[in-house]
TrEMBL record:
Signal peptide: none annotated. GO terms for molecular function: SNAP receptor activity. Coiled coil: none annotated. It comes from Jimgerdemannia flammicorona. GO terms for biological process: retrograde vesicle-mediated transport, Golgi to endoplasmic reticulum. This is Uncharacterized protein. GO terms for cellular component: endoplasmic reticulum; SNARE complex. The lineage of its organism: Eukaryota, Fungi, Fungi incertae sedis, Mucoromycota, Mucoromycotina.
Amino acid sequence: MPPTNSHIPPEILQRFNTLQTTKDQIDRDIARLRELPGPFSVQQELTSVVREAVKAFQRDMEGGSDTDSLRNAADDQDYQLVRRAVLDNLTKHEEQLKMYVDILRSSCSQQRFSQVNDIICRLQISSREAILRSKQNADAQTRIDRELLFAPSRQPGKDEDEQSDLRQRKGMSLLALNNSVEEAILRKHSDVTEQLQRTTKLMEEEVEKSEVTTRVLGMYCIGFGHYTVIESSVLLLTDRICLAFNQLTHREHSRLPALPTPTSPALFNPPVRLSQNSSSRIGSIAFCLGSACWFFWVWYCMSLSGGRGMWVLVGPAGWCVPRGQIVSGGYWPTKSR
């Protein structure tokens, strides 16, 4: 036999009736809130009333004395049937409370969404009005300035001093604009000039280094007719560097058409000093460098051995191998001292 309210004691049933009355009032307020076509302020007031009623119902259900007394009364009952009836009523009221909380959350979210939309609409309208007013004010001020600046004669209601001040301000603004443009152009020209000077300095240092290197190698070189190998290599390196520097400077110079073109023929028009026998010069340079490397390697190997022992020259490149080391997959015999 399922438990019914007839099995509940009268004092406990009276408390359940009080909770049921509160629940019915909350249901009516929620129905009014859903069907209310009034303004947003009225909806907020009714929502606050429903929220307070639900909080009171929640206190009675969960944290109030009624809940504790009802649960204690259900535990104190001797009959299982009465205990089950009380607990079933409590469960129903708890589920109803959860439903009220969900309804309030959804209603609050909808109200916040509508409130945010109203605020966005008002902000858009106010921003458009402000933009329109600023545009109208700017147009009116521009029209007044044009009338004061380009008027052929003094207009009634306009001060002559105001008109002269306006013309002076216009002239000063135009002068400041021209000065700023000229300063920007000069700054750009100065930057390009500094870059060219740095590049020239670097190229001069490279030429000096190449000349020093060729002088050192010239001590071990031999001459061929009127031109020596060192002179031809110096000419070749100098011509190549000047040609490369000429292309570089012209490429940087083409970025600024207004920059004045330097007239130094030694910098931008280097003399072409290449002779007709350039191929023979290149071959002589290669032979000279190979011979120098070969002699240097022989001297280095002899210095390591201290002039003692027997050394063997292997291959066309002049590799020096001491006795007793591996040469072409075999060993050279060495004598024991």
